[in-house]
């Protein structure tokens, strides 16, 4: 990798910059753009990375990471179009936006790699799925993989699966936070102080995630190991099934997938 510019320094953009620094990148090899001057000054003070305008970013950086909100993509691509060529690499972190959108708006031959990261990037534990556009080579994918490995794990998928990835892992942390929030409230309902309930559930979540990551066993087997005959857990599971929690989760993830598709179609 050479110089990297992050276009849009929101939470994900900042997390990537921070991860690259922790991964050994020099501040001299990093740039970012940010339309809010106060935010730009804050990040420069925090990390020592220069805030620049888009024309300078396009001129100085070989890798341009697009980290703006999907609804802000059109004016950004309009500004980028006369500034980039086949020697630039565009890395899109925008949910729902296909590589074909970039290829239609930018000059012919510009390589684009689509990425769906998630917010655990903020703590170096992201799950990022990457897909090559029609002009992106194995070398471009290797560059993006090396970059994202600084903030978590990386997997390559066909772009046709990216909307499903967005629904599953892109939005996935929110589902876990939602469940943890409900379980903390349950602890309070049962008479526990909020601080105690929170500590119990958060550490249980950390431990369960570690078991899933490090065990070769299927999640069903791990759950069954906690579920004794006629015990407390099976009674809880019965209530979850009675209330259709599994079906609701399936429907929720399908709805997220459908919204990702809509975001892409909005720019056709």
Q: On the 0-100 scale, what is the average pLDDT?
A: 95
CATH class of the largest domain: Alpha Beta
Number of domains: 2
Q: Globular, elongated, flat, extended or rod-shaped: what is the shape? A: elongated
Topology as H/E string?
Answer: EHEHEHEHEHEEHEHHHHHH
* Helix-and-strand structural type: alpha/beta
What fraction, in percent, of the residue positions are helical?
40-55%
Low-confidence stretches: none
Distance between the termini: 32 Å
What is CATH's topology name of the largest domain? Answer: Rossmann fold
Protein name: Pyrroline-5-carboxylate reductase
Function: Catalyzes the reduction of 1-pyrroline-5-carboxylate (PCA) to L-proline.
Pfam family, one: P5CR_dimer
Keywords: Amino-acid biosynthesis, Cytoplasm, NADP, Oxidoreductase, Proline biosynthesis
